[in-house]
Amino acid sequence: MTITVLDSYSAMKQVLRAPAADRVTMLRSMLEPVKGMYRFFPGDVDLVTMHRWASGFPLDRDEERCLDALETLAAAGAWDRIQGALDAALAAQLMATPGLEVPAITVLVVLGDPGDAHFMGPSLGLTGNGGISGYILITLWPFPENLERLEATAVHELNHNLRYSPGGVVWNPATVTVGEHVVSEGLADAFARQLYGDELGHTRIGVPHLHDEAVFAKVVSGLDVTGMQNFTAWVHGDANAERFGVTPVGLPTGAGYAVGNRLVDTYLAATGQTAAQALHAASSEIIATALRREGASGR
After folding, report:
1. Which residue(s) pair with 136 in the sheet?
2. Which one of 150, 168, 186 terminates a domain?
3. What positions does the domain DUF2268 occupy (predicted)?
4. What is the pTM assigned to this prediction?
5. First CA to last CA across the chain, in angstroms?
6. 229 falls in which pLDDT band (50, 70, 90)?
């Protein structure tokens, strides 16, 4: 039941200051502790390739810019703040679900790529991956808004990790729906908001669409879609879909996050539960309850 935030500050500093010819090997060594994140991928996964795919810092340019950004993260106390937030969040979760089975969790914080226009633009300099039990990866650029939300970002990913850890919800790639992914984002944001308030707890990419009825209706129309290759378009939006070669469906960035928040908030209001108490609530139940309420209100 240990959460370990790796000292990636020292490791990244060494990589960025090393001769260019040595950086790939050094980066691969830095990423080795989270290799288990990719255990469900087919074949042998190259960690450096995954780093680049996930908008991690470059190895062949922008060294000084990245080193400056790294010092900004360090000055903000990023690693200690994330560790403290995760420990406190886990304690809060265990109070709500005392019998919860909690894995040992390894957390890696990685500086993003300032030359990646999509990462720095539509993604607002932040991505996270907490859905694989035992691992959390946060890739970010230290924009002031991201520094302000460090704790909430980490707690969001912890919620994913605990939802999909042993004894929790099973994510079956063959049968999982867009609805499960959308609900999971809503639950993770609701947990972050439970601890840090609405202003910090909402994932930023979803905020512009929280009250957009057209976006809500469109995402709801796709909740039963299966096939994980489709999820990027329905949850993250067209810009992300196009980046990763997925067919767009006509949604703005963060649409699924906005709708997930709305569905989950309606469900929590209807049941009187907190986000922590609803950690393992079935997405089908959340969706059905929320849509009944939405229909009854005439929205």
Report:
1. 107
2. 168
3. 107-287
4. 0.96
5. 43
6. confident
Residue 290 identity: A
Sequence letter at residue 266: T
> What range defines the domain where residue 224 resides?
171-299
Report the distance separating Cα 55 and Cα 100, nearest Å.
Answer: 33
φ, ψ of residue 226 in degrees (nearest 5): -115, 170
Vertex 299, ends 253 and 277: CA angle to 5°?
70
Alpha helices for the chain (secondary structure H): 8-17, 20-31, 47-53, 63-75, 78-96, 117-120, 144-148, 150-163, 178-196, 198-201, 213-221, 231, 238-243, 255-271, 283-297
Q: Which of 112, 140, 168 is the last residue of a domain?
A: 168
Distance CA(15)–CA(22), nearest Å, equals 8
> Would you call 67 helix, strand, or coil by DSSP?
helix
CA 44/CA 55 separation, integer angstroms: 20
Please give the Cα distance from 15 to 33 (Å, whole number): 16
The tens digit of pLDDT for each residue in 77-120 reads: 999 999 999 999 999 999 999 999 999 999 999 999 999 999 99
Judge if 50 and 164 occupy the same domain.
yes
Domain total of the chain: 2
Same domain, 108 and 29: yes
The structure tokens listed for 208 are 């512009």
Residues 71 and 218 in one domain: no
